[in-house]
Amino acid sequence: MNAQQYEESLRKLNLVVYMFGKRIDNVVDHPIIRPSMNAVAATYDLAQKSEYEDLMTATSHLTGKKINRFCHIHQNTDDLVKKSKMGRMLGAFTACCFQRCVGMDAMNALSIVTHDIDAKYGTEYNKRFLKYLQYVQEYDLTCDGAMTDPKGNRALAPLQQSDPDLYMHVVEEKKDGVVVSGAKAHQTGAVNSHEIIVMPTIAMREEDKDYAISFALPSDALGITYIMGRQSCDTRKIEEGSIDRGNQFFGGHEALVVFDRVFVPWERVFMFKEYEFAGSLVEKFASYHRQSYACKVGVGDVLIGATQTIADYNGTAKASHVKDKLIEMNHLNETLYCGCIACAAEGHREPSGTYCVDALLANVHKQNITRYPYEIARIAQDIAGGLMVTLPSEADLRSPEVGKWVEKYCQGDANVPTEDRMRILRLIENITLGTAAVGYLTESMHGAGSPQAQRIMISRLVNMKEKQRKAKRLCGITE
Amino acid sequence: MRYYRIVSDNQVKKVGIKYCGGCNLLYDRVGLVYSLKEQTQDSIEFINYDGEDAEFILFVAGCEKACVDMGRLKGWPIYIIDKEKDAGQLIDQIKK
Fold first, then answer.
1. Which of A23, A60, B63, B94 would suit a FRET pair with A118, their CA atoms being 20 to 30 Å apart?
2. Do residue A56 and residue B24 have CB atoms under 8 angstroms apart?
3. Interatomic CA distance for residues A108 and A289, integer angstroms
4. pLDDT of B10
C-alpha cells in the first residue's frame, strides 16, 4: 500500500471520533489530526522508496512476500536491529511519533504468547493469530496496539475496582464470540489505524480471569468510540499560516478509546481467561515497545540539528560553552542509540520462532529514554534563548502595522532572514513544549511503562547473586 | 571504498542500484547517485537492483557500516560506496 492508498483506506472507515465535545465527520482532513495521519502515511511512502526499503520492508515468514516491516514478525536479531534503525530513521524524518510501532510490538508479543498458551492448554490461539497476521500483512494494515487500561485506583486489583469497566473485561460470553466493555487510554495513532489489537494491561490472578482477554477488531467496530486527547498548542494547527506550528508536516495524536459492549468473534480472540499468561504478554509487549523508543533518537537528531542552527542564527555557534553543550546533546542521543541497538543485537529466539529483544537491555534503554530527552530539550532551550517562548506570532510578522518591528527586532545574524530564525525557534518550541513534546518528553517518560516499571524489571532481571559471587571471590571471601 | 568487480567492455553498462536503509546518514546518498547519473550518462544505465540484466550492483550505503540484506542481492558482483569520495573513484574506474 502506498501513502495515497493508505489515506483513501482511512476514508472508508466509519470511526466514531469526538474532539472538543463534537463528533468529527471527516477525520482524515481535520487540521488537528491530519499531521498525525501524514506521519503514518510516511511509513507507507518510505517503504516504496528504494533508498529506504532495506529498513522499511522485510520478507514475510508466512508467505515469503515482501511486506512493510511494521507488519513483520522478527525472524532473527538482524530484524530486531533493523527495527531500531528504522525507528531512528523515521523519528528523524517526522520529528514526531509515527504511531505504527505499537501494533508491530503487539503482534510480535502475541506471536510468542499465543504459542505458549497453546503449548500448555492445546488451544488454537496461535493458528488464529497467524491467520490474522497474514490478513494484516496482505493488506498492509496499521494496527493500534492497545494495552493501557484506565486502571482506576492503582492500589486495587481489577475485580476490586468500584467500576468494573476501569479494566477491559468480558461482560458476556456467546456461542460465536464474547462481548467486552472497558477502555484503553493514551492510544497513540488510534484514529489512523485500521485495526485495534487489545491486550491485558497487567499480570492477572485467577480471580481476575475475566480481565485476561486479548483480541483484535476493525477500528470502526460497533461500540468503539474515540475521544481525542488535547495537546499543548494543538489549536495552532487550525490557525492561518504555518510558522507557529513548528513542524510543517507531521505530528502525533492520542485518544481515549471506549469499548461499550463490543462484540468480538472467537476467530479474533487470542487470549480468553488464561490469566497466568497475561503477565507474560505484558512483559513481551513492554520489552518490544521499550526498544521502540529508538524513535526518540531520531527526534533528538532533529532537535540537535535545530539547536546548532539557532546557534548559527544567533551568532553564538563559536562560543566554547555552546559547542560543548552540543557535544553533550550528541553524547546523550548516541547513548540512547546504544541501548536500542544493544537490546536488539542481544535478542534471542522464543519457542514460537519469533525473536525477542534482551529484556534487561530494553528496560535500561527505556529508562534512559525517560531522562535524556529532557536534558537534550533543556540544553536546546538554553541555546535557543528566551525568544523561543516570547516570540510574536506569524500573524504579527505578516501584520502591515507591526510586521516591520517584528522583522527588525527579532533578527539575529543579519545574513539570516528573521522568518527563518522564527521558524527554527518554533520547531524547537514544538519539540520541547508544543504538540511534539507530548511524544518527545512525556511519552518518553510514561509510554511503554513509567520509569518505575523499568526499574522493577531491571531489579528482577539482573543476576545480583552472580555479581556478589564475583566480588567475594576477588577479595577472598569463602562461604 | 570496497571494489569487488566491474565488468569491463565498451558498451553501456547496466548497473543495479541498491541503497542501505538510511538510518543515520553521513552524506546524501540519493544526491550522490543523481550526480553519478549525470556524470556517467554515456556509459552507465542505472536500473533497479533486482533488474535481471544488471552487470553489477552499486550498493550505496550511508556510512561505513554498510548494512544491507545481502540475500536480496542474489549473488551479483557488488560495488560498494559508503562515502562521498568513493563516487569519484568509481567514475575514474569506469572511464579507464
1. A60
2. no
3. 10
4. 54
